[in-house]
């Protein structure tokens, strides 16, 4: 389900009359202390409303939630009835979880009340539903409320607000923006990085190439770390950069295993348009999503399974300790330290080894099945470790020399390796 959250219309300037304010309180029963707190809440609200200048007391409505039974919420129904007959202009309640027990009910109720011109004020979250940010904030908070309402501890409700300020779904670490009093404000230097990531991707760069470019040009994440593939992927997939928000993209399977699942229609999703200034045009964002899909399909169709290359997981960088991985370089396979590959030669001064070289040297050393590890050292050295723990040291020649190899020589080396492998399989 997809909904567009409409632009909030402010009500016409009110006539100078008193705002009729009602309060809603709800407590769990079964505990004497809680029952006591219900009467305390009632007197707190009636006192507060009657003392507030410009406000007119319109009643305190209260419900007792009885554990293990269906929550009839008579007080709440009476409050709604009073709103429907225009006896109330504003409702005060302690927190979101008091008003409704799940996202759907909460938003349904708030929307109905808004339609009736009734503002709801949540004390703990400090939100007026009639404010410009109200609906957006409501949606976000509501998704937490659903989770939190299952929690036994009422104190946990405070977490809702903290999490919100910490910033889901655009947490304080969303590159390109700062969260400032309810709005996302563009940070130009960061926006430029985001734009560069998008255009690099569309011009054909892979995730690794983008990661390397960011890390070698000194660009850090919002938390000051080096970039990684997932960080870049997250930027490329973050629809919030188009100035809209898709809320409730994920949800928790349940409150016990807390497994995060992608929302594919199990729960309502809310799309809020133009909630903040865009960094990436919607068309470019769509193009990137399509391109990601295309590349993923291409891998599925033509790509070999992971870890099927003869040296996968075997070659270790003798300089930094990271694994070597295979990549294509000018149409030829080479093996390169993954740290060097992602972070550049500042991070690791190792050298790539052409796959041909690895194949030829390995063929000289032993059948591949007997080689347990290969360490790439400085000075074009390769150290082969065999199953019995012995090490064999080999040196290889630079590309210019190895390229003078004839095709026959190369084919022979390949054949030798494959044959030996087969024998030992
Ligand atoms: Zn390395």
Shape label:
elongated
Ligands present: zinc ion
DSSP strand count = 19
Average of pLDDT: 75
Largest sheet strand order: 3-2-4-5-6
The CATH fourth-level homologous superfamily of the largest domain: Resolvase, N-terminal catalytic domain
Helix proportion range: 25-40%
CATH architecture of the largest domain: 3-Layer(aba) Sandwich
- Number of helical runs? 14
Largest sheet: 5 strands, mixed
As a whole number of angstroms, the C-alpha radius of gyration is: 31 Å
**Number of domain modules:** 3
CATH class of the largest domain: Alpha Beta
Description:
39% of the residues lie in helices and 21% in strands. Helix 5 (134-148) crosses helix 6 and helix 12 (355-365) packs across helix 14. The protein contains 14 helices and 19 strands. The protein has 425 residues and is of the alpha/beta class. The two termini are 53 Å apart. It has 3 domains: 2-166, Rossmann fold; 177-243 and 278-301, no CATH class; 315-424, no CATH class. The strands form 6 sheets. Strands 3-2-4-5-6 form a 5-stranded mixed β-sheet, sandwiched between helices. The protein has a 4-stranded mixed β-sheet with strand order 13-17-18-19, with helices on one face. Strand 7 and strand 8 (183-186) form a beta hairpin. It binds zinc ion. Residues 317, 319-320, 322, 337, 339-340, 348, 350 line the site of zinc ion.
């Amino acid at each position: 389900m997809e909904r567009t959250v409409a632009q909030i219309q402010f009500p016409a300037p009110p006539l100078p009359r008193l705002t009729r304010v009602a309060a809603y309180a709800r407590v769990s029963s079964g505990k004497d202390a809680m029952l006591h707190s219900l009467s305390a809440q009632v007197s707190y609200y009636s006192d507060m409303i009657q003392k507030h200048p410009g406000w007119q007391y319109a009643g305190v409505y209260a419900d007792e939630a009885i554990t293990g039974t269906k929550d009839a919420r008579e007080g709440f129904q009476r409050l709604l009835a009073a709103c429907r007959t225009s006896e109330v202009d504003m409702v005060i309640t302690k927190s979101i979880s008091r008003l409704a027990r799940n996202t759907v009910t909460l938003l349904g109720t708030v929307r109905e009340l808004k339609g009736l011109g009734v503002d709801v004020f949540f004390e703990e979250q400090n939100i007026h539903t009639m404010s410009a940010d109200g609906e957006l904030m409501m949606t976000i908070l509501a998704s937490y409320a659903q989770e939190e309402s299952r929690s036994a501890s009422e104190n946990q409700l405070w977490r809702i607000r903290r999490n919100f300020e910490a910033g889901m779904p655009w947490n304080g670490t969303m590159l390109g923006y700062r969260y400032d009093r309810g709005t996302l404000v563009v940070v130009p230097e960061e926006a430029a990085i985001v734009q560069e990531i998008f255009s690099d991707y569309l011009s054909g760069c892979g995730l690794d190439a983008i990661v390397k470019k960011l890390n070698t040009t000194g660009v850090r994440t919002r938390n000051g770390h080096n970039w990684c593939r997932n960080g870049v992927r997250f930027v490329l997939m973050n629809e919030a950069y188009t100035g809209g928000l898709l809320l409730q993209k994920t949800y928790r399977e349940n409150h016990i295993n807390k497994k995060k699942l992608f929302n594919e229609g199990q729960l309502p999703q809310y799309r809020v348009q133009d909630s903040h200034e865009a960094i990436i045009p919607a068309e470019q964002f769509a193009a990137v999503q399509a391109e990601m899909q295309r590349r993923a399909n291409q891998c599925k169709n033509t790509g070999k399974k992971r870890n099927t290359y003869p040296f996968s997981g075997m070659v270790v960088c003798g300089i930094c300790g990271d694994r070597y991985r295979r990549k294509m370089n000018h149409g030829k396979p080479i093996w390169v330290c993954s740290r060097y590959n992602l972070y550049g030669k500042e991070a690791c001064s190792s050298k790539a080894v052409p796959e041909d070289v690895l194949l030829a040297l390995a063929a000289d050393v032993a059948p591949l099945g007997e080689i347990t590890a290969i360490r790439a050292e400085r000075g074009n050295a390769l150290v082969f470790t065999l199953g019995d723990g012995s090490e064999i040291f080999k040196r290889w020649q630079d590309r210019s020399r190895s390229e003078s190899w004839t095709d026959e020589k190369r084919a022979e080396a390949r054949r030798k390796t494959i044959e030996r492998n087969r024998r030992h399989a």
